[in-house]
Write a structure and sequence with these properties.
Blueprint (H helix, E strand, L loop, with lengths): L1 E6 L15 E11 L7 E7 L2 E4 L13 E4 L2 H6 L1 E8 L7 E9 L9 E8 L11 H7 L5 E8 L11 H6 L2 H4 L7 H7 L9 H10 L10 H25 L20 H14 L4 H31 L7 H16 L13 H16 L2 H7 L6 H5 L4 H10 L6 E5 L10 E6 L4 E6 L5 H8 L3 E4 L2 E4 H13 L1 H11 L3 E7 L1 H13 L3 H8 L4 E7 L7 H4 L6 E6 L9 H20 L6 H21 L11 E7 L9 E6 L1 H5 L7 H4 L3 H54 L1
Parallel strand pairs: 12-15, 15-16, 16-17, 17-18
Antiparallel strand pairs: 1-8, 2-5, 2-9, 3-4, 3-6, 6-7, 8-9, 10-11, 11-12, 13-14, 18-19
Helix pairs in contact: 7-8, 9-15, 10-21, 11-25, 12-14, 16-18, 21-22
């Protein structure tokens, strides 16, 4: 905590040069303790995984020492500069005296260079050991003050651009992307002289139709397998002839009469032949990329390690204490009322379209995911056949093989999720479906949860990196497919990690919508359907494309609430839960016990929700949320409500169901029951309308009968 004595004048005799961006310089000017004898003091300075140590100074003079620390944009938002004061001891362990903590986000309002006094507290009262409420109630006297000087240039989300510059620059310029997607197609032809030729630019769509780099086409793959089998048969029969066996004749014409017991030999030769076959240029590039993937993954793991060090910095709780805090938080959230929008979707066609593309999201998991949900042909049946992932997609979606345009299932590289591209004739659209987390590499993408500035806001760096890969390698081919099949729509589909990647990719592709309209007409539309999406953008960016991005969340799904900022809030809540458990009196009544604990947690929760110290990320687009809403006669009724990102992603709810809400099996059940709910309501409304029409018809007949009877009486009287 800083004492309000601020001096913005530098303490150096000579003017220091301006530090480069991302470097913080710290200098300890003085340390004043309250009657605490310390003979040989020194400081241990910690920021994330960086550690610096001052010299041991009996005179407490460190003015000649400067400590430079690296600060990236993410660390600036969440990092805590921690200075621990120790007393050196020659024979025993060094004694910890106290700790000073400085949140880097608070430097935003400070001048470039300033001096200030910061209080020194006991370690047990640090932010890693007590909540803000606990500090306020437990602190009485500090141990002293630390006089320090800091020099730092605060990094803005606009990446050193003024707000005017950000508005003038479009997304392509900020992301360093080409003016047109077709420029990326031109670059793949390795012919630089074609780039400025408009006639060649128009013809490029017919030249490049082999699919994205590294992808496969099912029909081409099956044809290649058949050719390899024919070649394998030829090689085997030629070997028999050289051994004096019967002449092989015309092998290529008699292939269909091969015996089943020769298949194993064919497979061995296929493997040899495949290894000997020269690879196309783009596949050669893929091999080179795979050789470097392990190095890239090591770098990713290093980045994750830095994040974990930063998240756990100063956390002074044991495993049992953390478990106790979780247990109390679960009871606390169970008694809280839930806020819901109650804006229920009643349009069955809208739900049908959502369910239609949910099948595409499921299909992206291949035969393994479909069999997990009971939608495959069985693990043994699907696991042993060739091209099983592609065939499972075709069978589950009930589309021709030719309509599966390209696919790629890989698990060895971060920031490159598996995907497939299909022609959906029922909606006259090209569909790109991006798989969610299913491999170790996908998990690495999730865990690279650092924030970085993007388009005047903040984005999840790992998911943005995945979207950028799709834009450069897959999006140009989407342009080709839209022209080739003359479709009027492009849908980007995803689940979990794939959903967040799809949303960011859609935002990027909106910059190229005019180019897609050149191929599909002025009525061409681009939309994204995301299921169980992950948080990936700040609130401003998340709500920017609500007309084009549709996100579907199941109840309290933790993935749709989770970001680094929300996890920092969970960390504070766990600490508050541990403190609240200590306040519980052993002999207090059950009601008083929980009331006292919940009041302490509520104070911390209110402060965290109101504070801007831990910025959160949000789900993109217009959000629809599934809720179990039982009524008499239908205990399994599920409704879908139209809601907002702020309503869904404001905080992580600690409940046991939050993991289950994210599972594809539970999400699939929610989609099914929501559709059944609307269909049942439609049937009930139809019955009501039929009854009303029948009542009206009966009344009309009675009226006509009464009129006729009166007419007959009048005639008889006359």
């Amino acid at each position: 905590m800083a004492i309000n004595e601020l001096d913005t004048q530098p303490s150096f005799d000579k003017e220091e040069p301006i530090l480069p961006e991302g470097v913080l310089r710290l200098q300890i000017l003085d340390c004043i303790l309250n009657n605490i004898p310390v003979k040989k003091p020194y400081f241990l300075i910690t920021l994330g995984d960086q550690k610096k140590q001052s010299t041991i100074s009996e005179e407490r003079i460190w003015k000649n020492e400067q400590f430079d620390l690296k600060v990236d944009f993410h660390a600036q938002l969440f990092g805590t500069l921690q200075l621990d004061l120790y007393e050196s001891n020659t024979w025993f362990s060094d004694k910890h005296i106290g700790r000073t903590e400085i949140r880097l986000c608070l430097l935003e309002t400070m001048p470039y260079q300033f001096t200030n006094y910061y209080e020194i507290w006991d370690k047990q009262l640090s932010s890693g050991a007590s909540s803000s409420v606990g500090q306020e109630t437990a602190r009485k006297n500090n141990l002293g003050v630390l006089h320090i000087q800091i020099a730092y240039r605060y990094q803005l989300a606009s990446s050193n651009l003024s707000s005017t510059d950000v508005l003038l620059m479009n997304g392509k310029q900020q992301d360093n992307l080409p003016r047109r997607l077709s420029d990326l197609l031109l670059s793949t032809t390795n012919n630089d002289q074609m780039k400025d030729d408009d006639d060649v630019r128009t013809d490029i769509y017919s030249i490049t139709q082999d699919g994205p780099p590294g992808s496969m086409n099912l029909l081409e793959k099956e044809a290649m397998d058949e050719d390899l089998k024919r070649y394998a048969k030829f090689q085997r029969q030629r070997g028999k002839r050289s051994d004096g066996n019967n002449e092989y004749g015309s092998i290529l014409n008699d292939y269909d009469e091969d015996e089943d017991d020769d298949d194993d030999d064919d497979d061995d030769i296929i493997k040899q032949t495949t290894n000997e076959k020269p690879l196309p240029a783009h596949e050669t590039d893929t091999v080179v990329e795979n050789q470097d993937s392990s190095k890239d993954n090591r770098q990713v793991l290093g980045a994750i390690g830095k994040l974990l060090a930063q998240f756990g910095q100063g956390l002074e709780l044991g495993n049992f204490q953390i478990l106790t805090g979780f247990n109390l938080l679960e009871k606390y959230y169970a008694q809280l009322p839930r806020d819901r929008e109650k804006d229920i979707v009643l349009d069955l066609n809208q739900v049908e379209l959502m369910g239609h593309f949910w099948k595409f999201a499921l299909a992206s998991y291949g035969w393994k995911g479909l069999n997990f949900l009971g939608r495959g042909n069985g693990v043994f049946s699907d696991g042993w056949r060739d091209n099983s992932d592609a065939l499972s997609i075709v069978e589950y979606l009930s589309i021709p093989k030719a309509d599966l345009l390209a696919y790629e299932f890989r698990s060895a590289e971060a920031f490159r999720p598996s995907y497939f591209i299909a022609l959906d004739r029922s909606t006259d659209a090209i569909v790109l479906s991006i798989r969610g987390t299913m491999s170790v590499s996908d998990t690495l993408t999730d865990l690279v949860c650092t924030y970085e500035p993007w388009r005047g806001g903040i984005v999840h760096s790992g998911m943005k990196e995945s979207a950028m890969w799709f834009l450069r390698n897959v999006a140009p081919q989407l342009l080709v497919y839209c022209r080739k099949y003359s479709v009027s729509r492009l849908y980007i589909i995803g689940h979990s990690l794939g959903s967040a990647t799809a949303a960011i990719l859609t935002m990027m592709l909106m910059d190229y919508l005019d180019e897609f309209k050149e191929q599909g007409g002025e009525g061409f539309t681009l939309e994204c359907f995301g299921y169980a999406p992950a948080c990936c953008l700040d609130l401003k960016l998340a709500e920017k494309y609500k007309e084009n991005i549709h996100s579907f969340v199941s109840a309290d799904d933790i993935v749709s609430k989770l970001s680094y900022g929300s996890m920092m809030t969970v960390k504070d809540m766990i600490i508050a839960g541990v403190e609240a458990s200590k306040l519980v009196a052993p002999k207090s009544t059950e009601g008083d016990r929980w009331k006292l604990a919940f009041e302490r947690i509520s104070k911390v929760r209110d402060r965290c929700l109101a504070s801007k110290e831990n910025p959160r990320l949000y789900v993109a687009g217009q959000i629809y949320q599934f809720w179990l809403d039982p009524v008499p006669g239908n205990d399994t009724r599920v409704v879908i409500e139209k809601t907002s990102a702020q309503q869904v992603c404001s905080e992580v709810v600690i409940q046991r169901s939050v993991i289950g809400d994210h599972l594809p099996s539970n999400f699939d059940l929610a989609v099914k029951r929501c559709r059944e709910t609307l269909m049942r309501q439609g049937q009930q409304q139809q019955k009501l309308d039929d009854t009303r029409e029948l009542t009206i018809s009966t009344d009309d007949l009675w009226h006509q009968f009464s009129t006729l009877k009166c007419d007959n009486k009048n005639e008889s009287t006359n």
